[in-house]
Amino acid sequence: MTWSPVVVGVDASREGALAAATAWSIARAAGAEYRLVHVAREMAKVPAVVAQAPGGAEVAQRLAAGARRRVEEVLRGNAPPEVVDHLEICAGNPAWILRRVAEEYEAGLLVLGGKRHTAPVRWFGGSTVHHAVRTIDVPILVTACPRPQIARILVAIDLSHAGKPTLETALRFASVFSAQIRAMHVVESFPPIPDVAIQIDEQEYFRLAGEEFTELVASATETETVETVTRRGAAARTIAEEAAAWEADVVVVGSHGKGWVDRVLLGSATERLLNRLPTSVLVIPMRAPAVEK
Predict the structure, then answer these.
(1) Residue 60 in contact with residue 89, Cβ under 8 Å?
(2) Over the stretch 14-65, which tens digit does the pLDDT of each residue have?
(3) Which of 128, 143, 158 is the last residue of a domain?
(4) Full domain range(s) for residue 79
(5) DSSP per-residue string spanning 74-140
């Protein structure tokens, strides 16, 4: 796969500037094309009938110009002037527009600035980042803090169909920066099974999971050595703790592509990790394998 073009969703915030700067460093390292997109919510509030009325077009133009001016002020110094000059201004729902833009440009990577939100915000619809991860079939990098370079990449993988391709994608991303990579697997406690007298031995369960994880990594890294760690605990919290302790610049995780309703009501380890944002998080969309009929 290629990381080009790198499409960046930006706004007039510190997080938007960080996303632009991070994406620019990735584009340079990967030799990739680089595009900036801002979705102006205020423009979407102008009904089509108003825009067509006398003076309506001027109102829309002023809103677009104001949005461009505010975003450009933040982007100066964080992205090349020639790219900022071609900042694309769109109106509508940010996640929907970014999905359309990513498909139109056949983006190799979408970069967004991460923002921490309160639990009620996440429960009642979530953020642009959450909506993007749920619906856009492109790798999404959510930036969290400024890093002078990407030198350490932690990839968290499970033992599902998504494990091996997530690791392979993380390896390709690491190769762009000649970064050190550490593969991690979290073994969560096996829940007790009601009405079953014999329960799973926790130690044996942990050992078997570790062996399967080691075999999975070996099958994906035949020509190189990757450091591996196996931890116990809740997935999102344990990954965040490992990222902080190892001082990872990016955490790579796979998104299993569950249904939108399932994700809103139940969440996933990936979305809980995005809520914590211990560092920048690269989410790799993974499709479930086709079921043979």
Answers:
(1) no
(2) 999 999 999 999 999 999 999 999 998 766 555 554 555 566 667 777 878 8
(3) 143
(4) 1-143
(5) HHBTTB-HHHHTT-EEEES-HHHHHHHHHHHHT-SEEEEE-----HHHHHTT--HHHHHHHH--S-E
Beta bridge partners of 4: none
Q: Looking at the structure, tell me whether residues 7 and 138 fall in a common domain.
A: yes
Per residue in 156-171, pLDDT tens?
998 888 888 999 999 9
Looking at the fold, whether 74 and 152 belong to one and the same domain comes out as no
Long-range contacts of 65-72 (CB under 8 A, 24+ apart): 67/12, 67/38, 67/40, 67/42, 67/43, 68/38, 70/12, 71/10, 71/11, 71/12, 71/16, 71/38
Q: Is 234 helix (H, G, I), strand (E, B) or coil?
A: coil
Residue carrying the six token digits 């391709």: 165
Q: In what order do the strands lie in the sheet with 34-40?
A: 88-91, 34-40, 6-9, 109-113, 140-143, 280-285, 250-255, 152-156, 180-187, 227-232
Strands 109-113 and 180-187: unpaired
pTM of the model: 0.85
Of 84, 119, 143, the last residue of a domain is 143
Please tell me whether residues 99 and 174 are part of one structural domain: no
Domain with 5 in it: what CATH number?
Answer: 3.40.50.620
Structural domain total, the chain: 2
Asked if residues 74 and 36 have their Cβ atoms less than 8 Å apart, the reply is no
Same domain flag for 175 and 107: no
Residue 195 tokens, joined? 């009405």
CA triple 22-12-17, angle to 5 deg: 15
Burial class (CB within 10 angstroms; exposed 0-12, middle 13-18, buried 19+) of 290: exposed
Q: Is 35 helix (H, G, I), strand (E, B) or coil?
A: strand
